[in-house]
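Hello,

Our lab assistant flagged a job as stuck in the queue for most of the afternoon. It eventually completed. Since we weren't sure the result was trustworthy after the delay, we are filing this so someone can double-check. Below is the sequence as submitted and the structure that was eventually returned. Let us know if re-running is recommended.
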Amino acid sequence: MAKVGILMGSDSDLGVMSKAAEILEEFGIDYEMTIISAHRMPDVFYDYATKAEEKGIKVIIAGAGGAAHLPGMAAAIFPMPVVGVPIHTKSLGGVDSLYSIVQMPSGIPVATVAIDGGTNAGLMAAKILAVSDDELLKKLKDYKAGLKDKVMKKAQKLEKEGYKEYMKEM
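-- returned structure --
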């Protein structure tokens, strides 16, 4: 049974939202992914949001660009956490999406990540689920330690080779 629902308003958002799926897979978290437009198919969206809890979904990750109503509408209907992913737009660079998602009215919170922040959305969903899952919490701690190790290795290489040699490999 799915634990996380990943929604996007358009298939053009798939490049960003697939990063959320990849991180969930890395942690062994079940998910389902679909395209639902809150504006173009409100009946289908409403049906999804009202039935998500019954399907075992504990967190929804919703990505949207422009007016970006998908995350907010999901949060208005779905009783558990929603993580919004503002998608970069050609006209305003995603700032429109960011403002739309982050400026939710009191009582309808949406956790919001950076523009095109699919990876962090997946990580936020994992952290939410880890509150009641010790095995997942351990995986998250190991992941964080791995991030530190990667940076330490890069720092050591830079210090050893000097910046000119380091830059040649980039």
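-- support follow-up --
The delay was a queue issue, not a problem with the job. The result is valid. The mean pLDDT is 95. The two ends are 42 Å apart (CA to CA).
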